[in-house]
Structures are given as C-alpha cells and as structure tokens.
Amino acid sequence: MVKENCSQVTEFLFTEFTADPAIQVMLFMLFLGIYLTTMVGNLGIIFLIRADYQLHTPMYYFLGNLAFVDICYSTLITPKLMADLITKRKAISYAGCAVQVFTLCLFGVTECILLATMAYDRYVAICTPLVYSVIMSPRLCVQLVFGSFLAGWVNAVTQTAGMLQLTFCGSNVIDLFFCDISPLLSLSNSDTTINHIVILVVTIVFGVFSILIVLISYIFILSTILRIHSTKGKCKAFSTCASHFMAVSVFYGTCLCIYLKSNSNNSRAKDKVLSVFYTVVTPMLNALIYSLRNKEVKDALRKVINKKCYF
Q: In a 10 Å sphere around its CB, with 0-12 CB exposed, 13-18 middle and 19+ buried, how is residue 109 labelled?
C-alpha cells in the first residue's frame, strides 16, 4: 500500500566498491583497460567482417551483430562505473535510471537470442552442410537478427513501463553499480507482484527457450561430430563451434550464477563481482574469444595488415 503524501525520489544512489582511494584508482585503471579492449576488439571484428568478403557468411553476420550489442552494452555500463569510482557522490537521475533499465533489458535479451541463433546456425552448418546455404539464406539471417532485436525491444518496453508505474518513496540506495530491475523492485513502495510475474514470464520465454535451443543444437552437433570417422574432420568441426561454445558458456554461466543465487548476506556481497563479470568483462571476452581463437578472423586481420604495409 502506498503511503499518502509520498514524495517520489528524483535520483538513485549506488554503493561504492571500496572506500580506499588507492584501490579506487586501481579499479578505474582496470575497468578503463577492459573498456578499451572491448571497444577495440568488437569494433575490429565489425570492421574485418565488412572488409573481408570471405567473412560475408551467416555466422559472421550474426557475430557482427553480437559485437555491436556488446559495444552498446559495455558503453552503457562501464563509463558510468568509471566515473563513479572517481567521484564522491555516486548518483543517477530517475530518468537516467529508467534509460539504463530500458537499454539493459533491450541488449541483454537481444544477446541471449543472438547466441541461440548462432547455435542454430552451427547446427545447420555441421549437421546438414549440403543444404546450409539454402536454409541459412540472407533473408532468414536478417529475419533472425531482426527477431532478436524485436524480442529485446519487447522486453525493454515491458520492463521499463512496469518500472515507471512504481512509486519510490523510501530508500533510494541501490546496492549495485547500475540500475537493474530486480533491485529497483525491492526499493519500491508499490505492489510489485505483476512486475515479478513479468520477469518470470520473460525469463521462461526468452531465457529458458534460448538455453534449450543451445542445448538441443549442441546435442545434435556433438552426435554428428562423433560419427565423423577422420580425426581431421572431427577437429575441423570442433573448431567451428569452439568459439561460440566458449562465449555461450561465459554468458549463460554468469547469468545462472546471478539469477539463481541465494538471498543470504554472503551471497549479496558477491553480487557486484558477478555483475561486473556479466556486464563489463563478458563483452570483452566475446571479442577476445572470437578474435584469438578464430582462424578466419586472424587471417582477415593479416590480410588487412599486409595490405596496409604494402601501400
């Protein structure tokens, strides 16, 4: 029940990582390095995919969109995090918080669906290679990417609209370094039953559905690879899936750790570490995984470097 004469908060405050100035400077430098690596890596992937005709395939079309999502995701979180490390008052306006919730919900679900789409792409490539180009047509690829962003948009609009209906009259301190929907619900003075139902439905529809697609795809992929007689053929098939499987493991593994955590004080103390890994480190790891472990990307980079050196 909302109290009468309720004064709506106009801003939210984030809790600090540490009060030690020396550690704050070290964390600032660490996050700066991670952010720069994320930007260079993901922008480099997008550039190489556009520059090298051999990378104009469905897999790299999805990878380019994943890199774009990671750039947006990281830019939304990391600069604000770094700014808060060197300022005494770690605040964000109500409108700014709503924007963060919207964009986080948008790009979070979009990345989730994109990773599932990439798993399906690997399934078609390995299990039905003769009809791969027919199934994964340019039109279908565009539709799958559009559907990923549309799912993210639906989630963002739904979650943000629900947040804007809530009343915040008490504490405005978020025990995190960004605005997430779950901590905001715990601060609200309104009835959040519908909001929690929406979160549950979104988790089932988008999260569980995506995980099932990934699991089923890799079960068929593994079954197909094990039936390959030549060792060289098995290694080639494994290499085409290794990068994506690592990226999926990092993303979904961290998500499960965050959303299946307990509510104990000890668990809440670890939330920030998990959230840093999920929102700041994962976009960097995706870029590193697909650049350092992907032979075609490294070959494209060598071509660009050799062309520059030649001129």
A: buried
Its pTM stands at 0.87
Q: What does the pLDDT look like over 132-186, one tens digit per residue? A: 989 999 999 999 999 999 999 999 999 999 888 888 887 788 888 888 888 888 8
Extended beta strands in the chain, E state: 11-14, 91-93, 173-174
Give residues with Cβ within 8 angstroms of 283, minimum separation 6: 38, 42, 70, 71, 73, 74
Residue written as token pair 């799912």: 151
Token pair 């908060």 in the structure block, residue? 9
CA 76-78-79 angle, to 5 degrees, is: 85
Number of Cβ within a 10 Å radius of residue 240: 17
Model confidence at 278, pLDDT cuts 50, 70, 90, reads confident
Angle at 210 between CA 205 and CA 212, to 5 degrees: 100
Going by C-alpha positions, the residue among 81, 64, 141, 70 that lies closest to residue 103 is 70
φ and ψ of 12, to 5 deg: -120, 150
- Would you state the pLDDT for residue 283? 86
- Interatomic CA distance for residues 125 and 119, integer angstroms: 10
